[in-house]
Structures are given as structure tokens and as C-alpha cells.
Design goal:
Layout: E1 2-4, H1 6-10, H2 17-32, E2 44-46, H3 56-68, E3 70-74, E4 96-102, E5 111-118
Parallel strand pairs: 1-5
Antiparallel strand pairs: 2-3, 3-4, 4-5
């Protein structure tokens, strides 16, 4: 299931049509069609598993990411290119979506709450992020 965070909904019109189309074609539609996340074209990765830059903000982001089960997905905005991550397979792109996964357990599927869309890959990831939906 897909839900949309309040902040994403409020900022919807600020995103380019191409980025929104990439999000829809490469994430929303496949998830709604029942495609497992392992079979999506882009890389879907827990956001707490990012390089350590050692800053207080980065450490805070890691903690929040684990506590809130945050992930990020490469939506293929502009183009996909081969990923370099040996653990999390999938293509990478400049555009990514930040997602909170709510796991109610089986037999219900996970709920993917799209919190934010970035047309350019932010590095490092930071907080705050709005978790309302």
C-alpha cells in the first residue's frame, strides 16, 4: 500500500512533471501492482545504512531513520545508472524518494509512506523530516 506524507502532499506542485512521472512509473505503480521491492528497478535501501560523515546531524539522522524505519528509493529521475552498492542491488539515480515503511505484518503488505521527494540526491541526508500523513 502507498500513502503520502503531509509534507510531500503540500510540496507536490513544486516538483517537476518528470520527477513525479519517475516516482509514479518506477515506484508507485509497481508497488500498487504487487511488485516486490526486490524487483523494483531502483535501489531501495534503509536510510540508516549510509556512509558515516561523523557529524551530529548525521548521527541524529541515523537514529531517527532506524526509529521510524526510513528508507530511500532511487526513482530513476533523469536516468538510471548502475548501482555500486554490493548489498542493496538496483539502479541509482539523482532523484530519490524518502519513505517510511509501516509493517503491519502478514498477511497485510507493508505500507510505504512517501515523505519527501528530492530531485537531486542530498548528501548527507539530514533531519528534520515531517512524519505526518
Amino acid at each position: 500500500m502507498i500513502k503520502f506524507g503531509k509534507s510531500f502532499t503540500e510540496k507536490f506542485k513544486t516538483h517537476s512533471d518528470a520527477a513525479l512521472k519517475s516516482l509514479f512509473d518506477n515506484f508507485i505503480k509497481p508497488i500498487k501492482d504487487g511488485v516486490p521491492i526486490e524487483e523494483l528497478p531502483g535501489k531501495y535501501k534503509p536510510s540508516w545504512e549510509v556512509p558515516d560523515f561523523g557529524t551530529k546531524m548525521q548521527h541524529a539522522f541515523r537514529k531517527v531513520s532506524q526509529d521510524k524505519n526510513l528508507h530511500h528509493y532511487h526513482i530513476g529521475y533523469r536516468r538510471y545508472y548502475p548501482g555500486k552498492d554490493p548489498v542493496y542491488r538496483g539502479m541509482e539515480s539523482e532523484g530519490i524518494s524518502h519513505i517510511m515503511i509501516l509493517s503491519p505484518g502478514h498477511p497485510q503488505p507493508d505500507t510505504h509512506v512517501i515523505l519527501r521527494l528530492d530531485e537531486k540526491h542530498p548528501s548527507p541526508f539530514t533531519v528534520p523530516m515531517d512524519f505526518e500523513f
